[in-house]
Design brief:
There is one protein chain. This protein has helices at residues 8-19, 26-36, 39-49, 56-67, 85-98, 112-120, 163-186, 199-210, 223-253, 283-286, and strands spanning 23-25, 77-79, 105-109, 122-125, 131-133, 155-156, 190-194, 267-274, 288-301, 304-309. By secondary structure, the protein is α/β, with parallel strands linked by helices. Strand 4 and strand 5 (131-133) form a beta hairpin. Helix 2 (26-36) packs across helix 3 (39-49) and helix 6 (112-120) crosses helix 7 (163-186).
């Protein structure tokens, strides 16, 4: 899907070469049925003779007949249908009945200014009916791909391709197509391709959105690794507990050399500086200012005062 001039036909031709599947253009098929005088063609002629548009039921029958042909069994590109939400809903039912539901609906996005430039640059050869673009795909010269005995393409511009009418065509397209885009978006089928830039780049973007993206599976959690981690945590916890118990035992057995400026009584509390044994593995944790409560007597020996605990408990 895409506005006139968005490059749907050009990219469809590239997909045909890439995947070997046919492009099903409802307009071309309808003209073919009318030219060959088939039952579907006669039905369409009768409708168009009354000045009416071919009804949805006839278009769906045309699509049903085309997708049943051998070359469409491996897939197909549907171009020009659906144009309304009613047609989209009917197409979904038809595809499901045939067992070939749509895989994706691709929207070609192009800015309005670029669309006007592309459409107004279109030229059609009156001899071979090939379509060219004077801006992006000019005709070759000499015209080796035209009808025999013609050295140049005879180009003309269709009335619908003139710049004065392009803007209105785009407004009509946007108004009619928006419900269809919403329908396919809600169905999870809509893919959007930025259709500006080099043709090869646009083709690559198209292939990217058509290629199923395989999500990377989450890495399984290894149970052995989890067990090792838990064991390490448990071992560290036991080690810390042992270290704490040893530290407490060392604190109870250390010799504290205290500088006490004054003792109020033989059983008093003093805030002292505690110097731990420098060889102790726990000295870094034990050193600090603590409050020590002793039940005992103070004996002065020179410049130092030694605190000797009595038989009572010493709380550190």
């Amino acid at each position: 899907m895409g506005a006139p001039g968005s490059g749907k036909g050009t990219q469809a031709q590239r997909l045909i070469k890439q995947f070997g599947i046919p492009q099903i253009s409802t307009g071309d098929i309808l003209r073919k049925h009318r030219q060959e005088g088939t039952e579907l063609g006669k039905r369409a002629d009768a409708i168009m003779a009354k000045g009416l548009l071919v009804d949805d039921a006839t278009m769906l029958d045309i699509i049903r007949d085309r997708v049943a042909q051998p070359d469409a069994q491996g897939g197909f590109i549907l171009d020009g249908f659906p144009r309304t939400q009613t047609q989209a809903e009917a197409l979904t039912k038809l595809m499901n009945d045939l067992g070939t539901p749509l895989d994706a609906v691709v929207l070609f996005e192009v800015g309005d200014e670029e669309l006007v430039r592309r459409i107004s640059g279109r030229r059609t050869c009156s001899l071979c009916n090939k379509v060219f673009n004077i801006h992006t795909a000019p005709p070759p010269s000499p015209a080796t791909d035209c009808v025999p005995d013609s050295s140049e393409h005879q180009l003309f511009q269709r009335k619908d391709d003139k710049e004065a009418t392009v803007a209105e065509r785009l407004r009509v397209y946007a108004r009619q197509t928006q419900p269809v885009l919403s329908y396919y978006s809600d169905a999870g089928l809509l893919r959007t391709v930025r259709a500006e830039g080099a043709l090869a780049d646009i083709t690559q973007r198209l292939l990217d959105v058509l290629t199923p993206q395989t999500a990377k599976p989450a890495k399984p959690v290894k149970r052995a690794a989890k067990r090792r981690t838990a064991a390490k945590k448990k071992a560290k916890s036991r080690t810390r507990a042992v270290v704490r118990r040893k530290a407490k035992a060392r604190c109870r057995s250390m010799l504290a050399i205290c500088s006490v400026s004054r003792l109020r009584s033989s059983s008093s509390a003093a805030r002292v500086a505690f110097a731990a044994d420098s060889n102790s593995a726990t000295s870094a944790n034990a050193a600090g200012v603590i409050e020590i409560c002793l039940q005992g007597v103070a004996e002065e020996d020179g410049s130092r005062t030694h605190l000797k605990p009595s038989d009572g408990p010493t709380r550190i």
